[in-house]
Protein 1
Amino acid sequence: MENDLWVFGYGSLMWRPGFDYEEKQIAVVRGYHRALCVYSHVHRGTPERPGLVLGLDRGGSCKGIAFRVAESKAAETIAYLRAREQVTMVYREIVLKASTADGRIVKAVSYAVDRSHLQYAGMLELPDLERFVGQGIGVSGANPDYVRSTYEHMAGLGIADATLKALTQRFSAAL
């Protein structure tokens, strides 16, 4: 357990990690916050019609899930995460201190947005968020489905996000 890998998920990793883990805990990291700040050119959009996905952006704090991966699966998990999260290199692989719900402080690998990358959207207003989310369809599906799934899973964990809630309501009403 001492050499196990911890991974901090703040978006779709919370509900679709895609790797084997031994344990998961609600956790908080400081110095970063969750934001729809990444133009998606692959998973939820294309370069011609970008969608938006979540990024871990600097400032504030973020509640998500810390996953403990057995040491024997660490290299395989990192390889999987790099293939998933770094397709266009919009994310930087970082190690954060995460405070778990049961009181532990763990060092967890996560992926923070690179603000200098051309896919960094920054802080967008709600009408712009709606436009990009509404148009985005990529290899992983429609952007509104990603927003809704993320919001619903977060709500089920007691994690609030007013922006994801507003977008979920907007796109649910449009059906």
Protein 2
Amino acid sequence: MMHKDHDAALLEDCKRGDRKALDSLVRRYERPVYNAAFRMLGNPDEAADVTQTVFLKAFENLDRYDPQHKFFSWIYRIAINESINQFNRRKPTEPLVENLESGSDTPESSFAADRLSQDLQTALMELQEDYRAVIVLRHFTEYSYRQIGNILEIPEKTVKSRLFSARQKMKEGLEKLGVFGA
């Protein structure tokens, strides 16, 4: 796979202190890491902070990276863990900030799309971190069960059962919000 070989070469260059290689890896993975953090946290500022922390931790710990695995799986696992840590550091009453743009044509459809997006994010935020992580990885980044298992370091069977439970809890949360009837 081209990405894996290219990443491996960039990682070797990073270990030798090559700043351009580091910049290249950050550019390649910054957006997906930010998106995962945003979906886990629901807050753009916190997601940006987590993204920065993820890259700092990754490059401070490059010697721990196992080249047998994809670099992105490794850095994604760091992103999920950092997002969980950030979520746990929050004050219990901190409001969820949501400001998603919509490509809708009318103010009514734009409002409805924003409302649905807010309701989805609210229901997602009410899930336990392990449930939220499988939902984010499966539905927002579209990873396979095997890839999710590798990232979270759990068996594929556990991914499937956790995803089933997470979807049920998400549905219950959306029903409470009145998104669709019981």
Protein 3
Amino acid sequence: MTRSKPIFPELFDMLKRVLGEHVDQNAKDFLDLMAEDAVMEFPFARPGRPKKVSGHADLTAYLEPLADILVIESFTDPVVHWTLNPKIVILEFSITGHSRSNGQPYNQSYVEIITLEGGKIKNIRDYWNPLLTQSLSA
């Protein structure tokens, strides 16, 4: 599946910088950091939204529309917690931005548990407040 544009380039830049040698530094966008069979999990997803998305094609289909409705303006410097397992890292950060359709502000804090494998992200468990996304669409 060909992506029409980069998905959240700001997030890609932050992850590539923070994860450093643990990920492919030749990656060109967010999904290039992900393994082909990568999984993103959303334990607090709103009803009707997926709690789990697997593989590049499904991740693209899930993330591209989000990138079309949200403008990311800034990130806080992430707090990075390397665990005793060198393949698992926990990131804490916040994003500020706004809705493309109605200008509503978006101020969200995240905790992500990331599992790495072979220079790629194998799994992201994404903890955030899904209620804050309700104001993004018109």
